[in-house]
Write a structure and sequence with these properties.
The chain has about 90 residues and is α+β, with helices and mostly antiparallel strands. It contains one helix and three strands, in the order E-E-E-H. The chain has a three-stranded antiparallel β-sheet.
């Protein structure tokens, strides 16, 4: 086995470059995967803007990366103030 790191080239399709806004999310899991639904909720309704399905190992890496980035953000811009969770039960159909 080689100790060289392999360079991986990633393409970024133009249609994805604008991103998708989400102001809420729903997370579920099974024994094999985590399902992340990113929602745009504007009461009285909402919609799923994106669904991302990831492995448990990737979920752990994502959790770590989000924690590190939140810490860096708060160091630069100050503590993030918690906001009120929107009332009601959000269920993805």
């Amino acid at each position: 086995m080689s100790d060289k790191q392999q360079e991986i080239k990633i393409t970024f399709p133009e249609k994805n470059q604008a991103g998708i806004y989400s102001n809420n999310s729903v997370v579920g899991h099974s024994g094999e995967e985590f399902i992340l639904d990113f929602l745009l909720v504007t009461p009285p309704a909402g919609r799923v803007n994106a669904r991302v399905i990831i492995s448990p190992a990737h979920a752990k890496r994502l959790f770590k990366a989000l924690g590190e980035n939140l810490a860096q953000y708060e160091k630069m811009f100050g503590k993030i103030k918690p906001t009120q969770i929107p009332p009601g039960d959000i269920k993805v159909q």
